[in-house]
Amino acid sequence: MSTRREFLTQAALATLMASGTTQAASADPAQPAPGSPATTTKSAGALKTYTIPHTDLVVTRLCYGNAMIGSDWDSADFIAQSVTVIRAAHEQGITFFDTADVYGKGKSELALGQVLKATSGLRRQVVIQSKCSNREGGVIDSSGEHITSAVEGSLQRLGTDYLDILLLHWPDSLIEPQEVGRAFDDLHRAGKVRHFGVSNYSPYQIELLRKHLHQPLVANQIQLGLAHWHTDPGASKAAITHGAEGVISLDYCRLQDIQVQAYSPLKGSNIGKPPNLLNAAADATPEVRKAVDTLQDLAHTHEVSPAAIMLAWLLHHPAGIVPIIGATKVEHVVDNCAADRVQLSRAEWYALLRAVAPIEQHT
Ligand SMILES: NC(=O)c1ccc[n+]([C@@H]2O[C@H](COP(=O)([O-])OP(=O)(O)OC[C@H]3O[C@@H](n4cnc5c(N)ncnc54)[C@H](OP(=O)(O)O)[C@@H]3O)[C@@H](O)[C@H]2O)c1
Prior knowledge:
By secondary structure, this protein is an alpha/beta fold. The chain has helices at 4-18, 23-26, 78-91, 107-118, 122-125, 144-158, 177-189, 203-210, 250-255, 286-302, 306-316, 330-337, 346-356, and strands spanning 41-42, 48-51, 58-60, 63-65, 96-98, 127-132, 134-135, 139-140, 163-168, 193-199, 217-223, 259-263, 322-325. The chain has a domain at 4-18 and 39-223: TIM Barrel (Alpha-Beta Barrel), CATH 3.20.20.100. The chain is 38% helix and 15% strand. The radius of gyration is 20 Å and the shape is globular. It starts with a helix and ends in a 7-residue tail after the last helix. Residues 65-68, 98, 169, 199-200, 221, 263-269, 271, 278, 305, 307, 324-329, 332, 335-336 line the site of NADP nicotinamide-adenine-dinucleotide phosphate.
């Protein structure tokens, strides 16, 4: 990670080099694919790292996101509790933090900002990713004007003068890709955003954007994991590992060297609802029981929790998937980080896939 001055110099150089070129030409061909042996190295801390393709950003394979503290974004304790758990995640070795302008109605960014401010030099040791485009009332706004003002707000709340990554949070049916391109260029040139990406985007939506961008899209954050075998109703079990066209874009992202980030990897706020993979309810179906047993057996073998096995299953995938964990209890953060040291075998990985695939789809 560089200082802002270094970044501004890099940004100016990149703008000079990129002028008149396409996104593909501005990408660094020397960057290996995420998760390839060349990008998976031991970090100075406890956790292994990836280099995000098309960037100089080295991030831990687990990212911490503080979208929720309890179920209420208006909670008076949101900031204090977030600060505690963000610190715990950093103490575990996590150097990659995910937030968004809307999380906690701005309190998620304020909490992260407090942690950054409290430790001298921390800002340059961590990678901060925020998102914009979701507005109140179910409105998605990727207009240039909104992107620009949203970033100003995020920078202010975070108390920093640059974001490492800005994601467009959700696809905008009214998107004007040229306008997005201009906003991205202006933000990059001004040194306010180093890299750009998307979230919940399909391959075609990414292609449409890429046609009009000078900046590479470096990440797509999507809902992914063993708990989301139902993500594409009607699709085969391959949907959770390869993606049905237009719904999940795992293979597409691999092809384009776009980092895949898996949100709600344990099922997020629906974790306790049936079918619960971490705990078979008394009335659970035989399929759910079998999946829970498989997870528990592997947890026993690897001496970690079933939740850590679910995360290790994502980490094992050669796409270099970065699970975004959202635990709000410190003991759960510690537990989740144990996934980083689990090495599943191919047989174990497929046993987990086979175990969840027959479970009846719910929603
Ligand atoms: N781009 C998007 O549209 C989008 C959407 C959703 C989320 N996100 C991002 O992804 C992050 C993570 O999402 P998430 O919170 O939904 O993910 P998650 O990590 O799948 O779910 C967190 C839930 O799992 C529980 N948990 C964690 N470890 C556990 C364990 N060992 N045993 C039992 N329960 C455990 C947590 O409990 P406790 O809270 O009690 O620890 C919490 O209820 C968010 O913070 C946000 O940054 C992005």
